[in-house]
Amino acid sequence: MPKKKLPIGIQSFKVIREDNYYYVDKTPFVKKLVDEGKYFFLSRPRRFGKSLFLDTLRQAFLGRKDLFQGLYLENNWDWDQKYPVVHVSFGAGVVRSKPELVETFFSILRRHEQIYDLSYIENLPNKQFEELIFKLSKKYNQKVVVLIDEYDKPILDNITKPDVAIPIREELKNFYSVLKDMDEHLKFCFVTGVSKFSKVSIFSGLNNLKDITLHPECATICGYTQDELESVFQDRLDEVDLAKVKEWYDGYNFLGERVYNPFDVLLYLDSKIFRPYWFETGTPTFLIELLFKKQFSLSKLELLEVGEEILDSFDVNSILPENVLFQTGYLTIQDVYFRGNARKFKLCFPNLEVKMSFTNSILNTFSDLTTKEHHYDDLYYALEKGAVSQIETTFKSIFASIPHDWFRKNNLQEYEGFYASVFYAYFCGLGLDVRVEEVTNFGQVDMTVIFDQRCYLFEFKVVEKADGRSLSQLKEKKYYEKYQGKFAEIYLIGVEFGKEERNVVGYYVDKL
């Protein structure tokens, strides 16, 4: 029997069910949401299955029972009830201006006009949207379902241009405001996006919009759980190293069972080659520039702790790196704890794909690809051979290759976090076990790198003149005691950077 097809890039529930594609049954969530409420909002990173789930909702409300044979919803849904559905999606194309957004509104509205054989009297897009809901309700003597996909994409398309993004935000707000006055005509409303703009700025007045982004019972509404991966794709897993698949693509946590990135899983199962498939579909250039602008040490991403307000607040006028990193999927939740009555979140990279690729992209901002690959080769060789002096030579070459204009533009010469970030990015880009500020009985080590049976402990300092204090601190604090007996070789490495030289000016090593 031929294997089913992998639904790579397929967002149509109908296509998946009719054309013999694998499908991970998420229909229990359809039943759950409809039973429990009316207005919902879900934020997930790009290419995580939001659009497919939205289309699953659409087909269920349209009464397409034939598409749900063998799924949970087949016997847990009232198929005699059918509803008119308004589907608004901004996923296709790029909106570059407010006039383009308005034309996109009209295009969406014209499509519904043709589908339902209606005609509009109103001329403004928000008024036509209101008219569409009202006329559908009257024509079918039934409440209307409204599904909005990628509600925020027109804003995110212009996130680096506030003068464009803000008018677009206000136009979207005007369009969505229709929903708050149409309650008696609406059966169900579901909104998806990548970011979580505050309800005040986008969904003004729609105070009953329930955010299920971090609701534990909806944690696996998108993405694949371990059980789903192993059961649905069982016939594709021969000779697959599941532990390595987990290391590369699992790890996303929305306060419930962790999930795999579905886009990565499908492409990996197709090729059986480990690659950063999801990461390659989008570039975090804007985010990387923001990190340097805020003098945000890349190594701190391993230990980021934020409050709930930071995770929830996203606005064009106040963009926080922590917020964008989480909402776009470059960081996920590692742990949750309370400080008094306030909930706090520990964030981390979700998996090896994101950690390697994101740090590698950092290096691309100030190094050409050929030079970077040469440095990678030299550094790997030095670690493989235990040639500690070669590590110094390689990093001196790395910092010497960074254009001086880049330092002046970002004012980084006195910023210890920048130098540490470069070390961190190169080690992570090689896919090594890198730990930052790991706690010992005597304090925190700046960076620990594990390679084979060798352990390298780094202490970084920016100095006026090299004096060896970095190595002295490693010895005096006895950071190494935590690692003794666990590794064949332990190296204490103190690295000192000169403010004027913008490079390594002191490199001190002691082997235990």
Structural account:
With 512 residues, the chain is α/β, with parallel strands linked by helices. It has three domains: 13-218, 3-Layer(aba) Sandwich (Rossmann fold); 226-280, no CATH class; 367-511, Trna Endonuclease, Chain: A, domain 1, CATH 3.40.1350. Helix content is 39%, strand content 18%. The protein contains 19 helices and 13 strands. The radius of gyration is 26 Å and the shape is elongated. The model has no long low-confidence stretch (mean pLDDT 90).
Brief write-up:
It is built from 19 helices and 13 strands. It is an alpha/beta fold and 512 residues long.
Distance from first to last alpha carbon: 60 Å
Helix share bin: 25-40%
**Any idea what the shape is?**
elongated
With strands numbered from the N-terminus, the spatial order across the biggest sheet is 2-3-4-1-5
Structural class: alpha/beta
Number of helices: 19
Q: What is the count of distinct domains?
A: 3
Which CATH class of the largest domain is shown? Alpha Beta
Oligomer: single chain
CATH domain fold name of the largest domain = Rossmann fold
Biggest β-sheet, characterized?
5 strands, parallel
On the 0 to 100 scale, the average pLDDT is 90
Radius of gyration: 26 Å
Number of strands: 13
Main attributes?
19 helices, alpha/beta, single chain, five-stranded parallel beta sheet, 512 residues
Topology:
Layout: H1 13-18, H2 27-36, E1 39-43, H3 50-61, E2 85-89, H4 98-115, H5 125-140, E3 144-149, H6 153-156, H7 162-176, E4 186-193, E5 210-211, H8 226-232, H9 242-249, H10 262-271, H11 285-293, E6 305-307, H12 308-312, H13 321-327, E7 332-339, E8 342-348, H14 352-364, H15 369-385, H16 388-400, H17 404-410, H18 416-429, E9 433-440, E10 443-451, E11 454-463, H19 469-476, E12 489-498, E13 503-511
Helix pairs in contact: 4-5, 14-18, 15-16
